[in-house]
Design a protein that fits this description.
single chain; 116 residues; mainly beta; seven-stranded mixed sheet; 0% helix
C-alpha cells in the first residue's frame, strides 16, 4: 500500500510563493509518476504537474514558468514550488499516484488561498 500526505498550503497574497510537499510512504518502490492536481470551489479537479522517478516533468500550460515540480527520492517526497501566485490558483491541491495494482491513490489535499 502507498500513502500520500500533502502539506505546505496556506494563505498568501497575489504575487507570493508557496512550496507544497507530498510525502509518500508504504510500498514506494512501486511508484513511478507522482502528480499534482487541484480543485477550485465548484470546479472539477484538474491536472497541474507531474514528475517521474527519473525526473522527467510535465506541466499544464497555465503554470509553466511559475510552478516547479521536483522530487527527493531519498526523502520519498515530491515538491511543488509555486511562484507568482494568482487568485485563480486558489484551490485544494492534491497529490496523486498509481501502482500496478491500485489505479488511483490520493492524498487528503492541502488548501491554497491566494488573496488579491
Amino acid at each position: 500500500q502507498v500513502q500520500l500526505v500533502e502539506s505546505g498550503g496556506g494563505l498568501v497574497q497575489a504575487g507570493g510563493s508557496l512550496r507544497l510537499s507530498c510525502a509518500a510512504s508504504g510500498n514506494i518502490f512501486s511508484i513511478n509518476v507522482i502528480r499534482w492536481y487541484r480543485q477550485a470551489p465548484g470546479k472539477q479537479r484538474e491536472y497541474v504537474a507531474s514528475i517521474s522517478r527519473g525526473g522527467s516533468t510535465n506541466y499544464v500550460d497555465y503554470v509553466k514558468g511559475r510552478f516547479t515540480i521536483s522530487r527527493d527520492n531519498a526523502k520519498n517526497t515530491v515538491y511543488l514550488q509555486m511562484n507568482s501566485l494568482k487568485p485563480e490558483d486558489t484551490a485544494v491541491y492534491y497529490c496523486n499516484t498509481n501502482t500496478l495494482t491500485t489505479p488511483a491513490i490520493w492524498g487528503q489535499g492541502t488548501q491554497v488561498t491566494v488573496s488579491s
